[in-house]
Amino acid sequence: MSHGAGLVRTTCSSGSSFGPRAGAGQRGTSPSEGLLDQVYPRTQGAVLKVAQMVTLLIAFVCVRSSPWSGHSAFRYFEVVTICNLIMILAFYLVHLFRLYRMLTCISWPLSIFGFVATFLCLASVWLSYKISCVTQSTDAPV
């Protein structure tokens, strides 16, 4: 049975939904058709991503509305929460719009390590800058 020249079918699912109706789309269409993946928002992975985004947003608002938000540690926490929120939102949208099928040049299971490596590199630069500034200011004669 021919599916056409441009259609690529994969055997892996985008979530961990089990049961007799797992992966079933609307009547008369296959789950791989359409712009949005209508099954993905109900999967465990999608629900966890939404829960993470809500938790990060609550944490950001709590720290932002704190009277001590002028301290550098609070600013750092704000940057980290917003960056993680954007990263998780990007992964959620990639799965929701099935962009991982079009972007085959990216190894999606390994892409999370790229984000972690970038975050660790930025944290290292930030901490080395912070330590060198603190060290210079404390070395001044009294």
Report on the structure:
With 142 residues, the protein is an all-alpha fold. The protein has helices at 44-64, 72-96, 99-102, 108-138. It is flat and about 70 Å long.
N→C terminal distance: 85 Å
Main β-sheet description: none
Radius of gyration: 22 Å
Helix amount, in percent? 55-70%
- Tell me what portion of residues adopts beta-strand conformation: under 5%
Please identify the structural class as seen in this structure.
mainly alpha
> What's the helix-strand series?
HHHH
Low-confidence stretches: 13-29
The average pLDDT value, as a whole number, equals: 74
Q: Count the strands?
A: 0
Broad shape = flat
Number of alpha- plus pi-helical segments: 4
Question: What oligomeric state do these chains adopt?
Answer: single chain
Concise description?
The protein has helices at 44-64, 72-96, 99-102, 108-138. The chain is mainly α and 142 residues long.
Q: What characteristics describe this protein?
A:
single chain, 142 residues, mainly alpha
Topology:
Elements: H1 44-64, H2 72-96, H3 99-102, H4 108-138
Helix pairs in contact: 1-2
